[in-house]
Design a protein that fits this description.
Shape: elongated
Strand content: 15-25%
Number of domains: 3
Radius of gyration: 27 Å
Helix content: 25-40%
Structural class: alpha+beta
Order of helices and strands: HEHHEEHHHHHHEEEEEEEEH
Largest sheet: 6 strands, antiparallel
Number of helices: 10
């Protein structure tokens, strides 16, 4: 089934054969996907309905090109032909639209979308060490792909803008352009991360965890790991195995010795305070930096704990 795509215009004077590429950039495509979600959620709808959500009439060429762009980014999938053709949001689109803005899974989905159009993928593979100048890209497209020079500037702008929006730089380009190594048939891929082990996460040169976290599960495709303290998957390639953190207990105090509060390990980036009561000590530890939403959750939890403690007072 041929999808309507943005192609170069062909006239009696040769101007370049039709080359399929997204009509809009990735950021704009995601805005269109959000407009679709606001109206239809996960439902499959006729293409003309999707075009109306994008602000086009049912006979608009721009509307069909927009639908095609979302398909090329892997944000929409289609079924059926002609008047029975319908589209709906993909799982990739739902992750981008619904997951937390800083979620590793969302960032991975954004990067997958930015690399998904074939022409985008071909250009990234051609320059695995990083993209060259606009002039060099333009020269290649005209010489080797007979690209219409009238649309070169807008295409390169959308192409670079999509990569920047997905936070794909030279290092990411190098990694993504290399084909994955496929193990021989019958031999499963080697995964150095196992459930129960402790890991540290480093992304773009920045350590993400204040202390090592334990792996609680792995995705079926072996790309993501799930760790304590977060419900989103973390890219396994950005994880490093570390030793399990050790908590050394205090020796039992001798009779008459100073009674110390129970040991609570103070992690990096945390604060701790101890309040002495006649019956014992209260030890509280909290992150050094906390968002307003996290503080609200913490405040509500503290109120709950106070009510529970009060019920136990005679």
């Amino acid at each position: 089934m041929a999808d309507p795509t943005k192609t170069d215009t062909v006239s009696s004077k040769p101007q370049g054969r039709g080359i399929s590429y997204p009509f809009i950039g990735l950021e704009d495509a995601i805005q269109k996907a959000r407009a679709f979600y606001n109206e239809e959620r996960k439902s499959a709808v006729p293409v003309v309905a999707a075009m109306r959500h994008f602000g086009y009439g049912e006979n608009s060429g721009g509307g069909r090109q927009t639908v095609s762009a979302l398909i090329q980014f892997g944000l929409l999938e289609d079924h059926g032909i002609k008047e029975n053709r319908q589209v709906k949001l993909t799982e990739r689109a739902l992750v981008i639209l619904l997951d937390q803005p800083d979620s590793p899974a969302r960032l991975a989905a954004l990067r997958e979308a930015a690399r998904f159009p074939k022409l985008y993928s071909d250009l990234l593979a051609r320059w695995p060490e990083g993209l060259p100048s606009d002039h060099t890209i333009s020269f290649h497209l005209q010489k080797d792909r007979d690209f219409n020079p009238k649309t070169l500037e807008s295409f390169i702008k959308d192409f670079r803008g999509s990569l920047a929006f997905a936070k794909i730089g030279n290092d990411d380009t190098i990694a993504s352009a290399k084909p994955p190594v496929t193990p021989p048939a019958g031999i499963p891929p080697i995964n150095p991360i196992k459930v129960g082990e402790y890991v540290q996460w480093e992304s773009s040169g920045v350590i993400q965890f204040a202390e090592p976290r334990q792996v609680t599960g792995l995705s079926e495709d072996g790309i993501y790991a799930f760790v304590t303290g977060t419900s989103s998957g973390v890219p396994i390639k950005e994880l490093t195995l570390v030793q399990q953190p050790q908590i050394i207990p205090l020796a039992a105090p001798q009779t008459g010795a100073l009674q110390l509060p129970p040991l609570v390990k103070l992690t990096a980036g945390s604060r701790q305070d101890t309040f002495s009561l006649d019956e014992g000590n209260v030890v509280l530890q909290w992150p050094d930096k906390m968002s307003s939403d996290s503080f609200a959750d913490f405040e509500a939890w503290m109120q709950l704990q106070l009510r529970k403690i009060k019920r136990g007072i005679n």
